[in-house]
Amino acid sequence: MKWASLVLSAALLAYPLLLPDPFYLDVGLSFLLVALSASAWNIVGGYAGQVSVGHGMFFGVGAYAPLLVFNLWGAPPVAGVPLGIIISLILAVGVGTPTFRLQGHYFSMATIAVAELIRILVGTWPLVGAAIGLQGPAVGRAWWDLTFRSELPYYYLFLAVLALLLLITQQVERSRFGYYLRAIKSGERAARSLGVPVQRTKLYALMLSAVFTSLAGSLYAIKTGFVDPESGFGLLISVQMVIIAALGGAGTLYGPLVGALVLIPLQTATNDWLGGGGTGLTYILYGGIIVLLARFEPGGLHELWYAVAPKLKRRLQRKERPHAA
Amino acid sequence: MLLEATNISKAFGDFQAVAGADLRVEEGEIVGLIGPNGAGKSTFFNCLAGDLTPTTGRVSFAGAELTHVSAEAHARAGIGRTFQVPATFEDMTVFENVMVGAFLRHSRRDDARDRTLSVLDMTGLQQFADQPARRLGTPGRKRLEIARVLATEPRLMLLDEALAGLTPAEIQQAIALVRAIHASGVTLVIVEHIMEVIMTLAVRVVVFNHGRVIARGKPEEVVRDQAVIEAYLGRRHRADAR
Amino acid sequence: MLLAQVIVGGLLLGAIYALFSAGLTLIWGMMNFINFAHGEFVMLGMYFALLTVLWVHGGPAVFTLAAALLLFLAGVVVYFALVRHVLRGPMLAQILSTFGLALLLRYTAFWIFSANVVSLPQTSLSGVVNLGGIFMPLPHLVAGLAAAALTLALHVLLTRTSIGSRLLAVAEDRRAAMLMGIRPDRMQAIAWGLAAGSAGLAGALMATAYPWSPSVGETFVLTAFVVVTLGGFGSVLGAMLAGLIIGIIQALSAFYLGAIYKDVVVYALFVALLWFRPQGLMGKA
Q: Is A308 among the domain residues?
């Protein structure tokens, strides 16, 4: 699949130059952002099999931190990125430590509860903008405010971070940590019997995932210049991460990208057909897709491809030699 | 004394699965654990391996107290085990399964790879290396489990019915493998129902019934023990045997 | 006596929490499966009650029964169409199955009923009752007491009847139950029916006393999670006790901290439970 990744990289790099229209650039940015978030979720939800359905908490923290440091101290939003990461790490430890020593369900339940908890609290806390939210610098004071007039620089910034995450994920895949993650997903009891430190490994996966999810949130806030409880911590964020990774293939390197490639155009199209009031129907669509995935192909398109491809290959070969004895 | 389990009891609510069981294993031995179904062998095994914490009693291994320590720590200390129902990593290939084991003692991928290849060679699984574990039949899975545990370089291996369900030819192969493992310096405790295997491999046998140890000794002696015959066949048969 | 009033109000609502949480813990104890759509079952019970009133003009007895029966059916259908297939699969499929179902049900309800808050038209049960200085709206009192009685009835059903013992046998040991001639699949479907039915019943009862919208499902399922964790894995009695406790805690939080924070305290309690006593009141460590 080496050539496929080269083609993909070339396509992603060339995309804004080929389709410079602001509309397409926006779609491209959405794609990168959800691909990034979903790839981050993938580490703990896909590889380790610990299904977080409240990952929006890390995204939201990462989104609020830069705008918070700007609003409180006039600092450039970028300075808030490490703050977001640190708080996300603390959250990860707070949620993961008690739940990873229990059955898997507790972790999933805890992620929804904590994400909701934070969303409500943030919505009532004046310091972080309460229900109104926070805004970033209207006009850039210097280059480090990262307020670009065109969206093009953001595109390449997002792409760079996505590439970094995929590179790290690839390294993890080949390392002891990665093998241990997959062992945990495949069979915790057997993993333990082989000396895998299950709780600690799950926690590290959650922490790594939290860092990049937070980063995704920060990038979103810096680009958009605005965040509120719904856009930062809303359910849609958590749902999107899960469905995109699962649709493409949870636990595979390119799964989240494939999922984003399918879902972003789909979402853009349905939003167009249904106008602004499409968000409700988007959820119905997402819900339906998730149920179908769970029921018929939890491995997503990746699994589907590997199940169907050999049969297609055989059929093609037969067509080429119809008179073979 | 490599392994010393003293006065092990395990209760699940009102049900006493194991009561006052002792086991001592010297380095280099092969000890057999036999007994009818439900006698408490697997529960006892799980207490030795750290999967369960005994209600009372102590387990010590190479001088270290392991009674309340996690299953991971048991593995790190050098105790490896297989499962009665094979628990291979179905989504991963044979090679990857064994790698997980190899990574215990080798944190670097290349070193783990070397260990994995040598274990695959020893267990005769090299040709299946790239196959997903779920494509192996039960005998293949059992062998894979043994390979995987072997990769962790254990001093003591607990085999839980590793030869059940094999054809006679496969049993002979398995016996040869177990002998080879033993020859490489691993101490073994084997749970088995197949008497032929126990007689061939075990130097010493411990018999369980109703959670208690009812007999110990050489395989030939134990098989003739009245209590053991009773346990397997019931009182009536014992009377008929006279 | 305002405090006493708050507490009694909390107890009554807590009884309803206990009723729908009992179903969740039954499924969890029996199949080691968490239904993320459980809150939506409650929400659907509320809407079925409303529809029954609007179309059939039935009284409380009619619409609560209707909600219970319809949801019982829904539970069985969900089991056979979805749950049965994912039970033996990976964790991801198990969690996504009912999580996706929750989204589907919730937003379909939004689509059909819109986000407006609704309530049942006035029934014969209206007015305020004076219990020795404590003033309680009659619907709240009736709903709470009925929920308490029904939760108890569920517990009795599970522990004292033959069908209950068959359900528990499957929960305890599937294979042994099969050897005894019990069909685990059928029992599990019945359990799902009971769980959904009691959720629907709880919803119908709540509809008599409180207004709602399609968004309540999300809050209810989280409440159920806390109740079930506090009560202990698989314990219906535990869920009963825990439901009452959570009801009181929620009412007191609303009273002292403001309505916005009533759920926050419960969720925070959940996290604290996970840290310090995940087995809850009745569970084993």
A: no
The verdict on a CB contact (< 8 Å) between A189 and B87 is yes
Give the closest residue to A32 by CA, choosing from A4, A53, A51, A13. A13
pLDDT tens digits along A255-307: 999 999 999 888 887 776 655 445 678 889 899 999 999 999 999 999 998 88
Interface of A with C in 285-324 (CB under 8 A): 286-295, 298
C220: closest chain A residue by CA = A113
Q: For residue B32, give the 3-state DSSP assignment.
A: strand
Domain membership flag for residue A287: no
Contact assessment for residue A243 and residue C103, using Cβ atoms and an 8 Å cutoff = no
**Structural domain of A80:** 2-259
ipTM, two decimals: 0.91
Look at A195 and B104 and tell me if their CB atoms are within 8 Å. yes
**What separation, in Å, do the N-terminal and C-terminal C-alpha atoms of chain C show?**
39
Q: Do B148 and A194 touch (CB under 8 A)?
A: yes
Chain A CB contacts of B107 under 8 Å are 176
For residue A6, how many other CB atoms are within 10 A of its CB?
A: 10
Do the Cβ atoms of C92 and A99 come within 8 Å? Answer: no
pLDDT along chain C (285 residues), means of 10: 88 94 92 94 96 88 93 96 92 94 95 90 77 84 91 90 84 76 87 95 93 94 95 89 96 92 94 93 69
Contact A175 B104 (CB under 8 A): no
Q: Angle at Cα A186 formed by Cα A180 and Cα A192, nearest 5°? A: 55
What pLDDT score was predicted for residue B241?
Answer: 46
Count how many residues are written for chain B: 242
User: By the CB < 8 Å criterion, does A223 face chain C?
Assistant: no
Q: For an interface test with B, give the residue of A181, A184, A193 to mutate (most B CBs within 10 A).
A: A193
Rounded to 5 degrees, φ, ψ at B214 are -110, -15
Q: What is d(CA C270, CA C285) in angstroms, rounded to the nearest whole number?
A: 17
Residue B176, token pair as written in the block = 């040869």
Residue A282 within a domain = no
What tens digit of pLDDT does each residue of B53-69 get? 898 999 999 989 998 89
Domain count, chain A: 1
Q: Which tens digits make up the pLDDT trace of C88-99?
A: 888 999 999 999
Taking the C-alpha atoms of residue C2 and residue C10, their distance in angstroms, rounded to an integer, is 12
CATH number at residue A6: 1.10.3470
Question: Dihedral of CA C219/C224/C227/C228: which sign?
Answer: negative
Does B103 contact chain A (CB < 8 Å)? yes
B90 → chain A, closest CA residue? A186
Identify whether A22 is part of a domain. Answer: yes
**A193 closest CB neighbour out of B71, B99, B112:** B71
What rounded mean pLDDT belongs to chain C? Answer: 90
Domains of chain B: 3-240 (3.40.50.300)
Is this model's pTM higher than 0.90 or not? yes
